[in-house]
Design goal:
about 70% helix, two-stranded antiparallel sheet, Arp2/3 complex 21 kDa subunit ARPC3, 8 helices, mainly alpha
């Protein structure tokens, strides 16, 4: 396997880091949770559905590193290492692993079911698991309360985002594949 980065890898990584950043401005704070509802998980899911695992990894790593460096890419235009160290930091770090898991599980020739399951596993379960553990660590609220505050309120919206990501991902992947074949 050729491990050299291609220009497409860098372009896709930058594009999906930017998309995820923009989706962070769709942010709804919840009075009962230190973690807001954002559009960023849709960006993670789209990256996983459309990109290969390396590109998905690079896109979310770029997103996280930009935020740590001070670019206002995290939800609501926030930035800095303090966001990663805070209650929502585990979810943000989970974006990196989640996007790679989605991309890996969907495989090279995904069908709708495979892509949907990959998106639910990587885009919801993986991110919630890492985020919930970190939320518990930072807040000391206990695992049960961390799940109640940091996962349950987000499941319906993230399931909707998963179906949107699969629908868009299938169309974009098909268009990219048709362009490559032409």
């Amino acid at each position: 396997m050729n491990s050299k980065l291609k220009i497409n890898d860098i372009i896709y990584a930058a594009l999906f880091a930017a998309l995820t950043s923009v989706l962070g401005y769709v942010s709804i704070p919840l009075p009962f949770s230190p973690v807001p509802i954002t559009g960023q998980t849709l960006g993670v899911m789209l990256a996983g559905c459309i990109l290969n695992p390396l590109q998905a990894f690079l896109s979310m790593l770029t997103f996280v590193l930009l935020g740590i460096a001070g670019a206002p890419v995290f939800s609501g235009g926030r930035a800095g290492f303090n966001i990663i160290a805070g209650p929502s930091g585990g979810y943000i770090v989970g974006f990196i692993i989640g996007a790679v898991v989605i991309s890996y599980l969907k495989g090279k020739n995904p069908n709708t079911l495979k892509m949907t399951l990959a998106t639910i596993v990587g885009g919801i379960i993986v991110i919630y698991f890492i985020g919930g553990l970190w939320l518990n660590h930072v807040t000391q609220m206990g695992l049960y309360k961390s799940v109640i505050a940091g996962a349950l309120p987000f499941i319906p919206g993230d399931l909707l985002k998963a179906f949107i990501a699969v629908s868009i991902g299938k169309r974009v992947s098909k268009a990219i594949n048709n362009k490559v074949a032409a």
